[in-house]
Amino acid sequence: MQPSLAASGEFFITYLSKRLPRLEGEKALDNFRALELKSRRCCKPVILEGYPSRVRAILLCTLLFFGVALLGQSAQTEKTFNQGAEALRNGRLDEAAERFSQLTVLAPGFAEAYFNLGLVRLQQRDFHSAILALQKSVNLKPRLRGANLFLGIAKYRNEDYLDAQTALKRELEIAPSNPDVLMWLGVVQLARGENSSAVVSLDKAAKLNPDNVDILYHRGRAHMLVSKESYEQMYKVDPKSWRVHQVLSQSFTEADRLDDAIKECTEAIRSKPDEPGLHEQLADIYWKQNQLEQAETEFENELKVDPQSTSSMYKLAVVSLERSKPAVAAELLKQVVQRSPGSSAEAYYQLGRAQAQLAENEAAIGNFKLAIKQSQQPDTETVRQSYYQLAQLYRRAQHLEESRQALESFLRLKQQADANEELKLQDKLKRAAQPAAR
């Protein structure tokens, strides 16, 4: 799936807006006015007034590309540049293209003129003309930041993937820590079927910009394709391998075809009964089906294969507790928290539940308090239920004030959780209604 042209336009704007530090609000205007003092003839501040900050940001970047370089050029060159910049600012792309084309004639050695013309042509979807202009800018100034990036994008749009990759790699030599360059390199590598290389590029991009949804999308797709390739090759090499059954079981589980998942996992175990993880995988499926007895058996089998499996020990404890075996659950959970004193809040909560059922009230109170303390977030279901359990235990022990405080905490957190759920529901309904409104 190729990135949309609308997304490219957004990327174009975003990329330009990053070219000037702190390019928002009055900071942006201050930066520009400082530049204006150095090149008053070239950059006229009047053209910035009365326009949205996002549009001013685009123009500021364009002026930054050209302003200093135009010092000493002819008055006609300056006039043509300002006309092109104003047309670009107002979204008049045809006029902007005409002015920047004239600028390349007036100043044929001015690389930035060809760069800006290439950007306009890219927005016009005239990829061939964009490539010609951007290639000229690169020829004139090989290390002009952004030129190889947009040349790579234009070549990608023109389905010239090999040359696109070459251009993007040149840009990466200039700006090795630019996540946009890495993302587009990954996109091009995906188009060329180089999925493993794309994973490397997109992983680096995600590390540099972890909240960029475009990067995250392409990264997830790259990993998915590599996984698909790996599984296909595995099936080709040995279609009867137990690993094939394991993968099929995982796939069926994700598709909620749990009976098929159990069948494939059972086949894997039949071929490899002592493989760590297989019995736990089967137990998880049984647990998902609420077949607790079978789940309990498979967790026990997993611990026979791998006695150090803390996850299986914890899961077996919870299933045992659900099957009214608090003594078994408590013993297992004590081992879990002993192995890892910093265990999750859930482990302490479940241990508290088991001890409460065994009437070990003081121990249970201590573990419910630990569950609250160990929680990574102050408002989770585990925290809320821990306060509720504390309220019940304190009341049994006639500690009425402590019971009241715990119950108040439970009710407060529950009200907050209910309010948050209501907001999420309203937001979901609002977003669902928007297409119909349009």
Mind explaining what this structure looks like?
With 438 residues, this protein is an all-alpha fold. It has a domain at 5-175: Alpha Horseshoe (Serine Threonine Protein Phosphatase 5, Tetratricopeptide repeat), CATH 1.25.40.10. Helices cover 76% and strands 0% of the residues. The protein contains 22 helices and no strands. Helix 11 (195-208) runs antiparallel to helix 12 (213-237). The protein is elongated and about 90 Å long. The two termini are 26 Å apart.
Regions with pLDDT < 50 over 5+ consecutive residues?
4-10, 16-52
Can you name the CATH architecture of the domain at 5-175?
A: Alpha Horseshoe
Number of β-strand runs:
0
Number of helix segments? 22
- Judging from the principal axes of the Cα atoms, what is the shape? elongated
Average residue pLDDT: 84
The arrangement of helices and strands along the chain is: HHHHHHHHHHHHHHHHHHHHHH
**Structural category:** mainly alpha
CATH class of the domain at 5-175: Mainly Alpha
Between the first and last Cα atoms, what is the distance in angstroms?
26 Å
CATH topology of the domain at 5-175: Serine Threonine Protein Phosphatase 5, Tetratricopeptide repeat
What percentage of residues falls in helices of 4 or more residues? Answer: over 70%
Largest sheet, described in full? none
The percentage of residues in β strands lies in under 5%
